[in-house]
Amino acid sequence: MKTFFVTGGAGFIGSAFVRLLLEEYDDCRIVNYDALTYAGNPDNLAGLNPDRHRFVCADITDPEAVLANLDENTDVIVNFAAESHVDRSINSAAEFLQTNIAGTQVLLDAARARGVKRFVQISTDEVMGSLPEDDDKFFTEASPFAPNSPYAASKAAAEHLVRAAHHTFGLDTVVTRCGNNYGPRQFPEKFLPLALANAMKDDSIPIYGDGRNVRDWIYVEDHCRAILAALEKGRAGAVYNIGARNERRNIEVAEALLDALGKPRSLIKFVKDRLGHDRRYAIDPSLAETELGWRPRETWATGLEKTINWYRENGPWIEKVRNLAYRDYYKAQYGTEVTVD
Ligand SMILES: NC(=O)c1ccc[n+]([C@@H]2O[C@H](COP(=O)([O-])OP(=O)(O)OC[C@H]3O[C@@H](n4cnc5c(N)ncnc54)[C@H](O)[C@@H]3O)[C@@H](O)[C@H]2O)c1
Ligand 1: does its nearest atom lie under 6 Å from the Cβ of 230? Predict the structure, then answer.
């Protein structure tokens, strides 16, 4: 039996990962440790087997709480917990430094204290900065760190701490760096679910700048399978870039969603660009493909269809999220009201 300590497992990717673990391992035990910030949602964990999945509402920056919930026989810590939205980090960076940097160090210390066998850090392609547009350059594991937002800088700092724990103390660590995820249960402050939820209500879709910024999109379950492969087969101390070779301009993403929903493209509304907005992210996932034997299962078309279907079938989930503090956030960010039932 394998024991996992998953942090941030009530968020978008963490909850998908917890579900995947329960599917893939008949006999695993999971402690899902999440502070339930605005982004954490207990509804994301509905229906999970309580015999194998224990939810703990606590903060990764609290060393006593982490140690109290981390068993001696834990096999793996997977650290998803983070402040994850770039725009919020531009408005205020303090929480990002606290959770993403200090919180990661608390977990690394606890892993050593409890003799945890492996520590998996979920990082992002954003630590490598921005690539030139219309170029054939890609991020590789050897690309230099060049974070451009407070969010990316805090995730880069966390990676440095993970590296230091491996180098100095011999902690068995693996880092995965992924591009933009999409799929069920993503908080609609992020571009794709925001565009989708707005379009479903005939609200306009705000697009920063000229809409030509490029992101490398991956279906969330494919990302989670890559994390599982890294967890099982990754080299100690290694970093793996995870991507589905799926670069899209933001405008293309909005158009694809509108076309699929049968809504007019006139719903697209260009708004003032994000400060310091990175132009292009593009990942070379060759190392993960060759060393981990991982490949994405979904194409852009199938992943998008699954995502749209999920949001169509889960209206109450969206409405609940959009009714909470999100309304104030949206108004402050875009200057308009969001439609809720
Ligand atoms: N979403 C993406 O496209 C993407 C891409 C690459 C990497 N990542 C990384 O993947 C991870 C998960 O991203 P996500 O999109 O699921 O984020 P999310 O914002 O949906 O979820 C984050 C979760 O962490 C929890 N959390 C926040 N602060 C905490 C704290 N101090 N203690 C305990 N729990 C805390 C929240 O309650 C929430 O459940 C993050 O580390 C992020 O940097 C995300």
Answer: no
Structural domain count of the chain? 1
Active site residue 27: no
CATH assignment of the domain containing 171 = 3.40.50.720
Residue at 296 is within a domain: no
Whether ligand 1 lies within 6 angstroms of the CB of 150 is answered as no
Domain that holds residue 118: 3-181+217-242
**Ligand 1 near 229 CB (within 6 A):** no
Q: pTM for the whole thing?
A: 0.97
Q: Which of 34, 83, 126, 278 is catalytic?
A: 126
> Within a domain: residue 20?
yes
Q: What is the mean pLDDT of each run of 10 residues along the chain (341 residues)?
A: 95 98 96 96 93 96 98 96 97 98 98 98 98 91 98 98 98 98 96 97 97 97 98 98 98 98 98 96 98 98 98 94 84 85 71
Q: Are residues 120 and 177 in contact, defined by beta-carbon separation less than 8 angstroms? A: no
Instruction: Quote the ligand 1 centre to 138 CA distance (angstroms).
Output: 24
**63 occurs within a structural domain:** yes
